[in-house]
Amino acid sequence: MGSLDQLYQQVILDHYKEKHGFGMREPVAGRLLAQSYMKNPLCGDEVTLRVAVERTADGDVVRDVSWVGDGCSISQASTSVLYDLIVDAPTEQAEEVVEAFRAMVRARGTVEPDEELLGDAVAFVGVGRHANRVKCAMLGWTAFEDALHRAVAAGNSGSGDPVPGSMSEERS
Amino acid sequence: MSQALPFDDVELKALRASFPVLDRSVGDHPLTYLDSAATSQRPVEVLDAERGYLTRSNAAVHRGAHTLAEEATEAYEQARAAVAAFVGRADDELVWTRNATEGLNLVAFALSQYGVGGADAGPYTLRAGDEVVVTELEHHANLVPWQQACLRTGATLRWIGLTDDGRLDLDRLDEIVTERTKVLAFAHASNVLGTVAPVERLVAKAREVGALTVLDACQSVPHFGVDLAALGVDLAVFSAHKMLGPTGIGALAGRREVLAALPPVYTGGSMVENVFMESSTFREPPQRFEAGTPPVSQAIAWHAAVDVLSGLGMDRVAAHEHALTARLLAGVAPIPGVRVLGPTTADDRVGAVSVLVDGVHPHDVGQVLDASGVAVRVGHHCAQPVHRRYGATASTRASVYLYSTPDEVDVFLEALAGVRAYFGRN
Prior knowledge:
A: alpha+beta, Sufe protein. Chain: A, 3-stranded antiparallel β-sheet, 3 strands, globular, B: alpha/beta, Aspartate Aminotransferase, domain 1, Aspartate Aminotransferase, domain 2, 36% helix
């Protein structure tokens, strides 16, 4: 099962078993907030993800990524890993991580991923060799990107209701 | 089913030799192809027929006076006669379509618009107050076109539900199929559950209330002998690529009287008699429904496919698949955490066996099976409602065909049994 283990690295199996950041958390007053819903209509995998951003003197910082979802090990584990990487990261850095992750899973395994930037997410490098699974890996990350942009753009206050989820989907 | 026997090892080896792809490997494993319900593999007889036509006689059909055009037209119409005869229809009762989905859309559109003769287009036009009845196990192709037809016409969509063991629930049939029912559209065999519908009973009920029957025969015609005329269905669709033939071609087979009463849907060249600047007149079926350049080489390849199937004998194909299906079901039953969607015995069932693996998503199941060279389908198989009916969003489907072997079933079962352990679900 050599190629199988390249895809399902232990990090992925661990995150699939114990999902980090799982569960929707209530808004905290004063934080920018937005929520996104992403579904892959081909397989039915779905993620609902909420981003809370704190506006500080030094810039915007992602303070929480709370999420629920249902789907394959790749989609669930990648969202769990995203939580570990993104929480408490400045939004610029978060965007940089998302871009690097997207580049890695779309590179068909031809690019050596930046381990410093991507941390445990480098475990998903093998996904690139399976074109059908790229959307799985991107599901939660696309939801995060969408929610982050709308949280910052709209300047939604956490005292209000979260923005309803978008119905759009990742198209790679 | 008659006394026909499954193919023995020698026969199986000989017939598999016609399918070069079955000889390949996937990684370090020989290919175990159990995805024929999605698309079947093609034998060299079919590939050679298409190539033979293209390398010798390729030409536009039904036009031109040259030798190649004559040969092409002859081969093309012979193909129509052969495919029609394979399902018990005459050659003027078979319309080529792009695929079965297009055939169903063609019917749904023809029944929901005024065509030849304007508002009095015929007895079958759907109107407000009419009802269309489908079943809960339909492929989206035999559901969504009817939803849309109802939206266009004001007709109401109703459906026959399912029992917990995966059969059509006919207890309330008399309440669902009534004098208001204009169309009864149903799958001959379910692509997810494998369930074979009791066609005779449904046709009898439809006739009793004067409803048109539309049969989705995509998962039946490839797997056992189907005589549409004997079954008494009005219209039926099926697809070449699920029965050893090419993609890009399907068929709508219908009773002559019914096809004659339907208006054209696609219009343009090849389907007209006289065209004036103001208006046009249309040809008789089947040409009335075949606008534009047809799939000629695909039709010829399909002819070769039905010849292969007839040569093997559909009774033996059915017996072979019945034995493999029974082996599959018996082998899946004792695997912990694995549940079959649909009937758990091989009676009145085709060899599409969908399973749910507790705690493991179908995409992950499919990936692990692929690592053993096993090709199955994962997802909702274009049938979301039937999955929802059984509390699932997706499943893993193994499907056998005439070239499948008992050993391949065993390879699948062994790989399936290891899936939950791989994801730490034991």
